[in-house]
């Protein structure tokens, strides 16, 4: 085991983030997807660092990498720390790997300081959180939690390969890696991916809940027509209807504290400058700490959109793509995490996570807690994603403090 | 020359429209573009029909087909009738060819009835009105009118071929085919491409003017952000801004009688459901019988859009793509055409042409008039474009009446 000076550990994390950021499925940009060659190389690299740190390492057939800092107490329970090692296409280097490498660095500090833990400390790098390859998120954590379904197994990637074959055949659905009650908790450090900590001038925050999220496709259908020859009053323009809907989404979202609603994607047919739009499809993404608030806003939007479509002689439909309930973080673990944060900075802001995380799945198996780390301009899923080394240092100290206090 | 019974001529036009509708650059759909192989085949077919009808035929190197029913008076002036034989991509069969074939059928009726005209009757099939190949409309009529510019010559098609080479080299810019004063007028029959005649329950109308048209690109730029983690009040969403603009376009257009304004095309970046839009580009198309009304509406939209962009912390720009002045039809020719229409139906509605036509160019060379023919549901630029045979028959009778009265 290599010896590192205490003050160098955050620097090591930064260095390792840079090295993982070079391991990609695509030249020139960072893209690392479920069970790709780049993913195997990244796993092998992190495995080497784990072994150097004295961890026992296992990689399951779903590509999840687990390193264990074993407690001398054989019947000890396990604290699971980590995040994911896969990325979106053209990603930044922090979303995911930061949480894995902070957990590993914490193990290194604990070993260096000869801390004997009354629990095993497992560091996990999930193989799929972003869902790029199979358009289905959380495949890594679902495998760990024994939540992969028969339906999942039949998903196909862009090349047509079924998930079941990609993970190596007919061993049936994976069982949960941990028995009920075996885990003390799952704790994940992750970049905030939003601007709230930056606006507050603080490096760290704790997460109270992962937001409920509903995704829909809204479709307005009217009648195409010549832009020069169809009088305004005879038009059935799908795009003016869709625009009124987008304004409605913005207005109604603003009426519920903490709720966010977004139309980010739009498809217009035929999308020609001199033809009135026949059909417009819009994405609708609504999130809030309470599932009921999401449902209420979606319901209201559906009603108002039906009225505006009738008034404009358009047809309207709202098709559900995905819906997930809000997931609460464990109050006890979160309080301990907040106390560890408060030793690094004046206060520990409590945030809602608008983005989904592996904790959504792990919450079915264990109490969860999350540490958010400030990122520049709230930017994520972008090569310019950035976290200051000082903030990584604070996050590492908070994580080590949390583990030591829990011990 | 084949003999046709009088009552069969409209049927022949319908039959010929069907045959031309089969001559396409692309299998399965109708697409016929400037100087393509399909265009040459279509020209050869119409040329054969023209020769059968006793017309003298010429095809110029720009692909314009001209058939002349020569007057016995050698010093006679010329009445030019016709339309264009090119089409948009995935076109209907009436837009363009209807006007050429009606003019040809009128010649056939006049010859059959041994009408001696005091003017030459030229039937023209322009080779490019839609501008598909070089993204520049009216190449055919511009060549006839001597209005091709040195700039036009350097346009390139998708394959990179310069227009100058495509039309066969270095003979310089084409001169006008007709001397000043040589043309009595240019009269074009064309489908309405709008719903006004259908709403009025009438087959035919005459055109008072071809609308002024301005085309712009409006661009809103904000800041991308995560749809789940960026609070509503911290957003700089380019798509909500663009939507407010689209509603503004609709509202302001409705305040000016007869004005139409359309956003038909939209491009969102990055156009992902869980990312707030960074940049939205919109097409803006504004038309009216008075050029000044178009300019006033565009000016007001620019001002209001700047205000809304400021309020939303977006940047905004409005880039002119194209602008054309309104073109008036000749009152005297139009009155004669209206009188001919009134012999076929109870009244002759006077319409503004919101679409551009070859008459825009020909108006530089001659007085122009246009006959509009009802089309089903106002639909055009679409394979379902349709004109009832009865309406084609009425149009033919109106056209023949007009020519005979003019003689």
Walk me through the topology.
The structure is a homodimer of 407-residue chains.
Chain A: H1 9-20, H2 37-52, E1 56-59, E2 65-69, E3 78-84, H3 97-112, E4 120-126, H4 139-144, H5 150-153, H6 163-166, E5 183-191, H7 196-200, E6 204-210, E7 212-221, E8 225-226, H8 238-254, E9 260-262, E10 266-269, E11 275-276, E12 279-288, H9 291-311, E13 315-324, E14 327-328, H10 331-342, E15 350-353, H11 359-362, E16 368-373, H12 389-406
Parallel strand pairs in A: 3-4, 3-5, 5-16, 6-15
Antiparallel strand pairs in A: 1-2, 2-4, 6-14, 6-16, 7-12, 7-13, 8-11, 9-12, 10-12
Helix pairs in contact in A: 1-3, 1-12, 3-12, 8-9, 10-12
Q: What is the string of SSEs of chain A from the N terminus onward?
A: HHEEEHEHHHEHEEEHEEEEHEEHEHEH
Low-confidence stretches of chain A: 1-5
Which fold does the CATH topology of the largest domain in chain A refer to? Aminopeptidase
Q: How would the global form of chain A be characterised?
A: elongated
How many E-type strands of chain A?
16
Quaternary status: homodimer
Radius of gyration of chain A: 23 Å
Which architecture name of the largest domain in chain A does CATH use?
A: 3-Layer(aba) Sandwich
**CATH C-level label of the largest domain in chain A:** Alpha Beta
In terms of structural class, how would the helical and strand content of chain A be classed? alpha+beta
Helix content of chain A: 25-40%
Number of domains of chain A: 2
Q: Report the CATH superfamily of the largest domain in chain A.
A: Zn peptidases
Number of helices of chain A: 12
Strand content of chain A: 15-25%
| Mean pLDDT over all positions of chain A | 95
């Amino acid at each position: 085991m290599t010896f590192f000076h205490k003050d160098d550990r955050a620097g090591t994390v930064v260095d390792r983030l840079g090295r993982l950021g070079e391991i990609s499925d695509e030249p020139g940009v960072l893209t690392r997807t479920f069970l790709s060659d780049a993913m195997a190389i990244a796993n092998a690299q992190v495995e080497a660092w784990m072994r150097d740190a004295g961890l026992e390492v296992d990689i399951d057939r779903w590509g999840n990498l687990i390193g264990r800092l074993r407690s001398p107490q054989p019947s000890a329970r396990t604290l699971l720390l980590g995040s994911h090692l896969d990325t979106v296409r053209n990603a930044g280097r922090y979303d995911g790997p930061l949480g894995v490498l902070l957990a590993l660095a914490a193990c290194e500090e604990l070993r260096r300081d000869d801390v004997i833990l009354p629990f095993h400390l497992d560091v996990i790098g999930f193989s799929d959180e972003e869902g790029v390859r199979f358009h289905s998120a959380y495949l890594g954590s679902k495998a760990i939690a024994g939540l992969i379904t028969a339906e999942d197994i039949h998903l196909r990637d862009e090349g047509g390969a079924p998930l079941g074959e990609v993970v190596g055949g007919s061993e049936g659905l994976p069982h949960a890696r941990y028995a009920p009650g075996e885990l003390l908790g799952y704790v994940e450090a992750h970049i905030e991916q939003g601007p709230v900590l930056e606006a507050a001038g603080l490096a760290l925050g704790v997460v109270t809940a992962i937001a409920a999220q509903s995704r829909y496709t809204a479709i307005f259908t009217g009648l195409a027509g010549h832009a020069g020859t169809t009088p305004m009053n005879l038009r059935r323009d799908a795009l003016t209807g869709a625009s009124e809907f987008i304004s409605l989404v913005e207005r109604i979202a603003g009426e519920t504290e903490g709720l966010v609603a977004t139309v980010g994607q739009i498809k217009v047919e035929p999308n020609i400058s001199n033809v009135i739009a026949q059909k417009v499809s819009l994405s609708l993404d609504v999130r809030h700490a309470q599932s009921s608030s999401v449902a209420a806003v979606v319901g209201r939007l559906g009603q108002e959109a039906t009225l505006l479509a009738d008034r404009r002689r358009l047809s309207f439909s709202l098709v559900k793509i995905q819906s997930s309930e809000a997931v609460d973080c464990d109050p006890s673990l979160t309080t301990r995490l907040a106390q560890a944060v408060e030793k690094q900075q004046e206060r520990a802001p409590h945030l809602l996570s608008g983005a989904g995380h592996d904790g959504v799945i792990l919450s079915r198996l264990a109490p969860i807690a999350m540490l958010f780390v400030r990122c520049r301009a709230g930017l994520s899923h972008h090569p310019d994603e950035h976290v200051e080394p000082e903030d990584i240092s604070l996050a590492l100290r908070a994580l080590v403090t949390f583990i030591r206090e829990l011990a």
